Amino acid sequence: xxxxxxxxxxFLPFPAQGHVKPMLxxxxxxxxxxxxxxxxxxxxxxxxxxxxxxxxxxYCRFPKFQFRSIxxxxxxxxxxxxxxxxxxxxxxxxxxxxxxRNLLVNxxxxxxxxxxxxxxxxxxxxxxxxDIAEELTIPVITFRTFSACCTWTYFHLTKLxxxxxxxxxxxxxxxxxxxxxxxxxxxxxxxxGSIIDLSTSNN
Length: 203
What we know:
Helix 6 crosses helix 7. Residues 198-203 have low confidence and may be disordered. Strand 4, helix 5 and strand 5 (140-143) form a beta-alpha-beta unit. Strands 3-2-1-4-5 form a five-stranded parallel sheet, sandwiched between helices. The protein is α/β, with parallel strands linked by helices. The chain contains seven helices and five strands; from the N terminus they run E-H-E-H-H-E-H-E-H-E-H-H.
């Protein structure tokens, strides 16, 4: 009797800690449920992970899990946080696109116990993964790793501008909920302010 094919999910996070961690948790859960999981880090993130995590023990806990790494397009000593995040974003889109496609093609050639990829879960920022997945006819899901506060801000930014809440008028307003949604009294507007600064500066 033919054995059922084990689903093989390939994960592609944006190469920053706040994006890698939630996607890694999802990969571990699916691996624990019996899926094969290939988690693609940047070389930089993978190097940091190997210095801070017992990878061998992790593989024992999740025997159907593997890490692979590809370049992110920046020199090894280049900053990857703060004001440099936009450079990482541009470099990763250019460099990672080709490397990601090559790796998928390689994974698609059944190698030992690993099945070819049956699904890709990519960070929403890494939108090029959709084009590559469609080219290689692999189903793809985009996964947003940011917080509920960030999600709320993106959905309501236009309304915040229309209501005159943005730009904020001084630091004293950061903890005053917007007039049209006063029930959100516990929302931290310091966080909202930083997200809006990033959103508006990118536009």
